[in-house]
Amino acid sequence: MSESRGQQNYEEALGRFRDHGQERVFRFWDDLGGLQRQQLLDQASAVDLAALERAHDANSGCTGARPPKLETVPVVRLPAHGGDALAADRAFERGSQALADGRVAVLVVAGGQATRLGFDQPKGAYPVGPISERTLFEQQAQKIRGLRRRYERPLPWYIMTSDATDAATRALFAENDSFGLPAEDVIFFQQGMVQSLDFEGRMILERPDRIFENPNGHGGSLTALLSSGSLDDMERRGIDTVFYYQVDNPLIRIADPTYLGFHLEAEADMSCKVVQKRDPMEKVGVVARADGKIGVIEYTEIDDEHRFATDDKGELVFWAGSVAIHIFSTAFIRRVAENADELLPYHASAKRIPTIDEGGQPIQPTEPNGHKLERFVFDALAAARSVCIVEGDRNLEYSPIKNAEGTDSPTSARRDLIAVYRSWLDAAGIELPKNGAAIEIDHSRVDGPDEARQLGIQRCAEAGDTIRVQAGESA
Ligand code: UTP
């Protein structure tokens, strides 16, 4: 590009940024080389200044906001908790039919940065297998292979990555031959990035030529499905129903037919799976109506009156913890994505954001110095004409890897996964390994008690590679 054209682009960008009080982004301009200037201009051209201003305004006035008035929402209960077992059987048939008809796609959000876990690769590359150390992605691929075999349909798998995870995720799948899945049925798409803001609402430089950005939250999956063309791809394949989950839950029941069936019977735009909160202080959001609108109320937002409320049996009134397992219709995703500015607001959370000082030297702050902005997928609930909320069994379905140690860690997730395997073996009448033994089941062959039973065996040793057992310390 000619120098005068470059200067003109700079002046245009500077003017645009100045109109929004963001001209400090260019404060090192005179020190930058040609390539650095171009990079900064390229980055600046993609910034949605008006959206950032709205995000700052919306998030700066909220500290003294009145907590919302909450009401409970109807939940399809598990048969063990009073739910209708026949209705669950009907839902299973309906969901199975949708899978057999090829109407369903699977969507995993895997663009997060795993900061709490402190893992330097994508979380999906975490070695979760209790014996083989197979990764979360490999385990999920096994489940999808099992579903493809069972329903004789491709069940395309859409994997959302971000700048932080894209290259490493694609490389992992390439090295492992897509974990046994046909490459055309594993579709990667990348979520957007959004600039972080300091507490005054100004963008933050991470280098003299680079504005700090973070992945735009799991809610970015809905907009990225549209902008990447993946939503069109789904519709071309005859898909109208999308099963959404997070990459970090090794207990996930991908495309659970019963859940799909309830969603379809309710003709819901969007569905939510919930589990019983362990106690009022547990750090999960609850599904409820807030000031009349259905949504997920985060554990930081619920006030004590609602948090501790119990019914006449002493049970928590707001017990329905959201575990981020959703189902969407493709038409609803399109509507939300097309109206994202209105329907998916940015939420701010205070973080330590790497930056530079006035001399351009790097600083690692020890205290939060700004807000990361993120869109939350569950904000779409408020726009749904019909929502279906279905209870799941936490012990069998949800044990995420969030932290390096303690609750929701690799250790707790492996322990819970082994407990699920034991329950399958037990239900199938297969002799249980000693307590403390590690167990690993190949989900492409056995993905529940029924398939364990169909093996027709009495001991794990008869299952070859399908069921592996390794004696533990206490075995
Ligand atoms: P979390 O909010 O738990 O984030 O994301 P995380 O990246 O796994 O971990 P922390 O918060 O940095 O410690 C829940 C799910 O949403 C995905 C994550 O990959 C995970 O599957 N996610 C989150 C995205 O795909 N993109 C985002 O921008 C944020």
Can I get a quick summary?
This protein is 32% helix and 20% strand. It is an alpha+beta fold.
Distance between the termini: 70 Å
The largest pleated sheet is described as: 7 strands, mixed
Mean of residue pLDDT values: 95
What structural class results from the helix and strand content?
alpha+beta
Plain-language structure description:
This protein is of the alpha+beta class and 475 residues long. The chain folds into three domains: 3-46, no CATH class; 70-398, Spore Coat Polysaccharide Biosynthesis Protein SpsA, Chain A (Alpha-Beta Complex); 409-475, no CATH class. The chain is 32% helix and 20% strand. The protein is built from 15 helices and 21 strands. The protein has helices at residues 3-19, 34-45, 49-60, 85-100, 136-151, 166-175, 220-228, 230-236, 257-265, 304-307, 330-338, 340-343, 394-397, 410-427, 449-454; strands at 70-71, 104-109, 157-161, 186-190, 193-195, 197-198, 205-207, 210-211, 213-215, 241-246, 270-276, 286-290, 293-297, 320-329, 346-351, 355-356, 362-363, 370-375, 387-391, 438-441, 467-470. The strands form seven sheets. A seven-stranded mixed beta sheet has the order 4-3-2-10-14-11-19, with helices on both faces. The chain has a three-stranded antiparallel beta sheet with strand order 1-12-13, with no helix packed on it. Strand 7 and strand 8 (210-211) form a beta hairpin. Helix 1 (3-19) packs across helix 2 (34-45), helix 4 (85-100) crosses helix 9 and helix 7 (220-228) crosses helix 11 (330-338). It binds uridine 5'-triphosphate. The site of uridine 5'-triphosphate has 23 residues, from loops.
